[in-house]
Write a structure and sequence with these properties.
binds magnesium ion, 11 helices, six-stranded antiparallel β-sheet, D-amino Acid Aminotransferase, Chain A, domain 1, inositol-1,3,4,6-tetrakisphosphate 5-kinase activity, binds adenosine-5'-triphosphate, alpha+beta, five-stranded antiparallel β-sheet, single chain, globular
């Protein structure tokens, strides 16, 4: 019998088409100047199902249709602000590395009044992308939401305040059967304190092994995002997500459509497990010390005055991280997406920070399995 955490599993595709291949179905559904509904979308509004949705442009970029005001224009303004050519706010410039690249807006000549945000497809460099969308924060509604909206959002996932994140959807490539398992938002809503570790770990299980290499790389990327949030106090993010992607192809014989061998993503998984776990504990120590040090910097120390040589330790952790990324082909992306509810603020985004920390805690628990 299915466990409660398997409730939201939607479909199991038995064959995974080669990426980029143009099947007859795909050609048939092509519209809007060759754009097609995004085939690997794991959450959110779906083209053809909802009034607005996400498309893929023939050039490989993702087109996100602008939501009705104020959400769509707000998201567009956010991207325009972060990617403004004349932007000299270092905080926003630093944020770019955690976002898909933004290429401005796009409209089809057939329907010039419909505007889309043109974005980098975060999954494009992956042969068999495993994708997960996790909503972050303690509130899914913004400070200007009506009581009705608040109640609706709270009733969708009453644990949001306590958990600080919600799994919205995922697709996981199964190596043995060359298939993908997909999970929808109902799956995530069924996860609570006791089941979230198991529920989330399904994302990293390829039917054969738990991809601890991908867990470790994900942790390191989330930690970088956390560092950005701890250093900024000008923006608050509500109902925004992290999009996780790792390379699911891991048998050495997988051949890409361009004829090259796919990266050996998890072949060395077991061999490097020891390295990864020592790297992780070093990195954790280094991060704790960095934060501690930052506090001390306000009043007492500077970096070079550290008394116990832990700078060396941080460098070692960073070197090990580079090694781990090489071992996995660096094949993990964690990007922030969905900015329809981003607002100026004058303090740290405590709800988002709380969510990131709790998510990191759960990811570390998966690593310790
Ligand atoms: N840049 C991207 N690269 C790859 N996939 C993306 C990208 N942006 C979005 N997606 C896919 O589309 C899904 C929905 O995206 P997003 O959250 O931005 O839209 P939404 O939830 O419909 O928007 P909104 O909450 O503003 O109505 C994601 O879960 C992901 O699968
Ligand atoms: Mg979304």
């Amino acid at each position: 019998m299915d466990s409660p955490v398997a409730l939201g599993r939607l479909e199991v595709a038995r064959t995974v088409p080669t990426r980029g291949a143009c099947s007859p179905e795909r050609e048939q559904s092509a519209h809007l100047n060759g754009c097609v509904p995004l085939s690997h979308q794991v959450a959110g509004h779906k083209y053809g199902v909802d009034k607005v949705g996400i498309l893929q442009h023939p050039d490989g970029t993702v087109l996100k249709q602008l939501q009705p005001p104020p959400r769509g224009p707000r998201e567009m303004q956010f991207y325009s602000m972060v990617y403004a050519e004349d932007c000299c706010d270092q905080c926003l410039i630093d944020l770019r590395q955690h976002l898909p690249t933004y290429y401005g807006t796009w409209s089809s000549p057939d329907t010039p009044t419909d505007s889309y945000l043109k974005l980098e497809d975060v999954t494009s460099r992956f042969q068999k992308p495993c994708i997960m969308d996790v909503k972050i924060g303690q509130k899914s509604y913004d400070p200007f939401a009506s009581q009705e909206k608040r109640d609706q959002q709270i009733s969708k996932y009453p644990l949001m305040e306590e958990m600080g994140f919600l799994l919205l959807g995922m697709r996981v490539y199964k190596t043995g059967s060359d298939s993908v398992d997909t999970y929808d938002q109902h799956y995530g809503r069924g996860l609570g304190k006791e089941t979230v570790r198991e529920g989330l770990s399904k994302f990293f299980y390829n039917g054969d092994v738990l991809r601890k290499d991908a867990v470790t790389c994900s942790i390191l990327k989330v930690q970088k995002i956390l560092e950005w949030f701890e250093g900024q106090s000008q923006l608050s993010f509500y109902a925004s997500s992290l999009l996780f992607v790792y390379e699911g192809a891991c048998s050495p014989g997988v051949v890409r459509s361009d004829g090259l061998l796919a990266p050996k993503a998890c072949e060395q998984n077991n061999n490097i497990a020891q390295n990864l776990s020592s790297m992780f504990s070093l990195h954790k120590k280094a991060c704790v010390r960095t934060h501690f040090q930052a506090k001390q910097d306000n009043g007492v120390w500077t970096t070079t005055q550290q008394p116990n040589g832990n700078r060396g330790q941080r460098e070692e952790a960073e070197e090990l991280q580079r090694d781990a990324e090489q071992d996995t082909g660096g094949d993990v992306e964690v990007k922030m997406i969905d900015f329809a509810h981003v607002f100026p603020s004058d303090g740290h985004d405590q709800g988002y920070i709380y969510g990131l920390k709790n998510l990191l805690k759960v990811l570390r628990q998966i690593l310790e399995e």
